[in-house]
Design goal:
Length: 343
C-alpha cells in the first residue's frame, strides 16, 4: 500500500471523517440477541442523547457571490453560485444547514445523518464519492474534506468544471471556528460565519464553565468498535477524541498511556496500560458488539476500572467528532454521562 493511501485511511478514522464510520454498522447490520438488545437499552437509558437535528441561525443572510477563496489543497476556488450545494461529509453538511442554507443542498454524503438531511440522495458508496452521482445533480459547488476520495472521483468532478472547496479535517475544538468560517466564506456569507462561530464557541465555553473543578481527572479510553466487521480499536494520539475529553475535564487514557498511532488494535496489554475509568464509544459501535454486556466480553475490557464499573459514555456516531456547530451538545452529553449526579 502506498504511503498516500495509508495516510488517507488513517486520517479518515481520525478526525472529521471518523463520523463517516457511523455508516458501516447501518450497512452491515447490528443484529443481536434479546440479551444484547436489553444491554443496548440499558446504555440508551443511562445516556443523555444528543438530538440528531441542527439549529439553523435565525435570519440567515443570502449568499453574496461571486467570491474567490483559498482551498486547503492549495488551489484558489471561485464560487459563482451556491444554489445547488453538495457537501461531501456529514460535518460540512451540518455547517451548511446551520448557516441556514440547507434548502440549497441537493445531496448528502452517507455520513450526514441528522434529521434535516436524511431525505437527500446519497452520493457516496461506503466511504467513497461517486463522481457520476454528484455530477448527475448538476451542482454549482462541492464541499470536501482533505480526506475525501477517491482522488479519481474528485478529479472527475473538477474536470467537469464544478468548483470544489477542500476544507482541512477537524481534529479538535480549535478547528470549530476555522471550518465554519471557511464554508461561510465560500458560500458568500462571511458575517454569518462569524456569527455562527461566536455562537458555537460561546456555547462550548458555557459547558466547560459549568464543569466543577476536580483534583483527579477521570481516565477515558476512546474505543472504535464494529463487531459486525470484527474491528476493535483503541484511540491514541490523533484519534480526534483528545480535545473533547480534555475539555470535559478528563484524560485521554489511550494517548496518555503512550499510544502514538491514531488507532491501534485493542489488546489486553493496551487496555491494562491505559487503565480507563470510563470508555467512550460511538452508539452504533456499542450496539454492534451487543451493548455493554458485549463490550465487557472484549478481552481486557472487564479487567479495567471502566469495565468493572460498566462505566460507558456513548455518543451518536454522526456527531461525536464533527467539531462543528453541535460540539457543545456533544461535550455536554459527555460531561453528563461521565460525572452524572456527582457534578
Amino acid at each position: 500500500m502506498r504511503d498516500g493511501t495509508a495516510h488517507r485511511r488513517r486520517t479518515r478514522m481520525a478526525g472529521a471523517l471518523l463520523s463517516a464510520l457511523a455508516v458501516l454498522t447501518a450497512a452491515t447490520g447490528c443484529g443481536g440477541s434479546a440479551q444484547s438488545a436489553e444491554s443496548a437499552k440499558e446504555t440508551s437509558q443511562s445516556a443523555s442523547a444528543t438530538a440528531d437535528r441542527v439549529e439553523p441561525l435565525a435570519d440567515p443572510a443570502k449568499p453574496q457571490l461571486p467570491v474567490t477563496v483559498s482551498s486547503s489543497d492549495g488551489k484558489r476556488v471561485t464560487v459563482r453560485a451556491a444554489d445547488r450545494i453538495v457537501p461531501l461529509s456529514g460535518s460540512l453538511s451540518e455547517i451548511v444547514f446551520t448557516l441556514g442554507l440547507g434548502d440549497r443542498v441537493v445531496a448528502r454524503d452517507i455520513t450526514a445523518t441528522f434529521a434535516q438531511a436524511e431525505k437527500l440522495p446519497v452520493v457516496t458508496r461506503n466511504h467513497d464519492v461517486s463522481a457520476e452521482s454528484v455530477l448527475s445533480l448538476e451542482p454549482d459547488l462541492v464541499l470536501a474534506e482533505t480526506t475525501t476520495g477517491p482522488d479519481e472521483a474528485m478529479e472527475q468532478i473538477r474536470d467537469a468544471g464544478v468548483p470544489v472547496l477542500v476544507v482541512d479535517p477537524a481534529l479538535g475544538l480549535d478547528d470549530v471556528g476555522p471550518r465554519i468560517q471557511a464554508v461561510a466564506d465560500a458560500l458568500g456569507v462571511p458575517a454569518d460565519g462569524k456569527r455562527l462561530t461566536l455562537r458555537s464557541e460561546d456555547r462550548i465555553a458555557a459547558v466547560r464553565k459549568a464543569i466543577p473543578a476536580r483534583e483527579e481527572h477521570p481516565r477515558v479510553a476512546f474505543l472504535y468498535l464494529r463487531g459486525t466487521a470484527s474491528v476493535y480499536l483503541i484511540g491514541g494520539k490523533g484519534s480526534g477524541a483528545t480535545s473533547l475529553l480534555e475539555a470535559a475535564g478528563a484524560v485521554d487514557a489511550g494517548a496518555e498511556s503512550g499510544l502514538e498511532k491514531d488507532f491501534s488494535t485493542i489488546t489486553t496489554e493496551a487496555l491494562a496500560q491505559a487503565a480507563p475509568d470510563a470508555i467512550l464509544v460511538m452508539t452504533k459501535g456499542l450496539e454492534s458488539v451487543g451493548g455493554i454486556d458485549g463490550l465487557v466480553k472484549i478481552p481486557g475490557v472487564a479487567q479495567t476500572p471502566a469495565g468493572m464499573e460498566r462505566r460507558v459514555v456513548s455518543i451518536e456516531d454522526g456527531v461525536l467528532l464533527n467539531y462543528g456547530p453541535r460540539t457543545d451538545e456533544v461535550l455536554k452529553s459527555i460531561v453528563e454521562q461521565l460525572y452524572g449526579d456527582s457534578q
